[in-house]
Specification:
7-stranded antiparallel β-sheet; globular; alpha+beta; 6-stranded antiparallel β-sheet; Glutamine Phosphoribosylpyrophosphate, subunit 1, domain 1
């Protein structure tokens, strides 16, 4: 994603989701990709698409279905009717300001001298501008504003100097600085790649004669595939008719997994690098109860990511857990809306409070984060309007103090409420009776010691140095 075009909203943007499938016996994979993308819808709700090919058909012939909207809106039965192929890639995405365009919908399909490349990408390349300028000075003409096209161009150029497409991917990765999980389809191969720090997840599954690549294990479960393993940070995986092959030449031991995958982004039924997302969130809630106790009558979680942490808080504190919020499942995440007026409207219709659960009670409200504080303030107000006598807010992450450059829209400077206000001041701004955050020192405990992770949005300690002019 292009850093310069960011437009930050009141909450976090999730990341994108990627999915790929290759059936070695020639069976159609369109429905597999559809249901895989459906299971990854939480990672991006503005646009989606898939590109498929037949490895036994004309070399390089690619059919695609892409559009703005949810998977169910874009990949309709009518739109998929003529798509057939035993190999394919898919993508769901969110967009920043200036990127919400049909031209930027992934997967991108490129034709070049060696055939075709179809690519989907989750992450953010920090040196996109330099790489793009290098290509433009040598004659490249870009059709999009996203860094995925820059990656694709560099792979295509390296392919001209390489024996195989997977070798070209490895060579291109040496030029990329930042975060990326990639699925790529060439006429006869399905390739997955993960940056050496492992910022974003990517896993391998198998169902019958099909191999699958996916952002999360929840997508494997959705298509009834068996989990094989995670793609290693820095690994390039190639799947062809002979099976699966691996290049680990870029793997290192300096990992920096995005901690927010465990706190918020991933589905709770996923496992990332062998760690249960659900267990991580429950542990975060338990830690909050240990470090930020309060006398109360009920613990509630803000759906969806706050629920597991609320269960953990309730288990540890012995305060009953209650389902106080009814979520409208047909409303996209509120911060997806590009305009503030649309976001505010979405907040009002997204959640409704069950007064039966909170009326006359002291409530502990668990949420995953506070960015600007506007959404949290609305929810606190809703609880009090429903009759809660006290609302004590507990956040299952530390305060955001620094921007993210690896694919998550954590705002800069004045946009972050915790950057310019104390905990007590934030408490007053959101209208809570008390406020407590997860401490930095306890992050290790939610995923296990020894797991390298990135917490730069809390600490300012960036595993990959951002451009100086961007570091605010």
């Amino acid at each position: 994603m292009n850093i310069e075009s960011s437009n930050f909203s009141s909450e976090l943007h999730e990341e994108c989701g990627v999915f790929g499938a290759y059936d070695l016996e020639g069976n159609d994979v369109v429905s597999t990709i559809y249901y895989g993308l459906f299971a990854l819808q939480h990672r991006g709700q503005e646009s989606c698409g898939m590109a498929v090919s037949d490895t036994n058909g004309p070399k390089g012939e690619v059919m695609s279905c892409k559009g703005m909207g949810l998977v169910s809106e874009v990949c309709t039965e009518e739109n998929l009717e003529n798509l057939r192929g035993n190999i394919g890639v898919g993508h769901v995405r969110y967009a920043k300001a200036g990127e919400n365009s049909v031209h930027n919908i992934q997967p991108l399909v490129l034709n070049y001298i060696k055939g075709t490349l179809s690519i989907g990408h989750n992450g953010n390349i920090i040196n996109t501008n330099e790489l793009r300028e290098e290509l433009e000075y040598t004659g490249a003409i870009f059709q999009t504003t996203i860094d995925t096209e820059v990656i694709a161009y560099h792979i295509a150029r390296e392919r001209l100097k390489s024996k195989t497409v997977e070798e070209a991917v490895t060579k291109a990765m040496k030029k990329l600085i930042g975060a990326y999980s990639i699925v790529l389809m060439s006429p006869r191969k399905l390739i997955g790649a993960r940056d050496p720090h492992g910022f974003h997840p990517l896993c391998i599954g198998k169902k019958g004669s099909s191999y699958i690549l996916a952002s999360e294990t929840a997508a494997l479960n959705a298509v009834d595939a068996e989990f094989v393993r995670d793609v290693l940070p820095g690994e390039v995986v190639m799947i062809n008719k002979e099976g699966i092959h691996s290049d680990t030449s870029l793997c290192t031991h300096k990992h920096a997994r995005c901690i927010f995958e465990y706190i918020y982004f991933a589905r709770p039924d996923s496992r990332i690098d062998s760690v249960s997302v659900y267990n991580s969130r429950v542990m975060a809630g338990r830690i909050l109860a240990q470090t930020n106790p309060i006398d109360a009558d009920v613990v509630v979680g803000v759906p969806d990511s706050g629920n597991a942490a609320a269960i953990g808080y309730a288990l540890e504190s012995k305060i009953p857990f209650g389902m106080a919020f009814i979520k409208n499942s047909y409303v996209g995440r509120t911060f997806i809306k590009p305009k503030q007026a649309a976001r505010a409207s979405s907040v009002r219709i997204k959640l409704n409070v069950l007064s039966e659960v909170v009326e006359g009670k002291r409530v502990v409200m668990i949420d995953d984060s506070i960015v600007r504080g506007t959404t949290c303030a609305k929810i606190v107000k809703m609880l009090k309007a429903a009759g809660a006598t006290e609302v004590h807010v507990r956040i299952s992450s530390p305060p955001f103090l620094y921007p993210c450059y690896y694919g998550t829209d954590v705002p800069t400077g004045d946009q972050l409420i915790a950057r310019n206000n104390t905990v007590d001041e934030i408490r007053d701004i959101i209208g809570a009776d008390s406020l407590g955050y997860l401490s930095i020192e306890r992050l290790d405990d939610i995923i296990g010691k020894g797991m390298g992770y990135c917490d730069a949005c809390f600490t300012g300690k960036y595993p990959v140095k951002p451009p100086e002019e961007q570091h605010i």
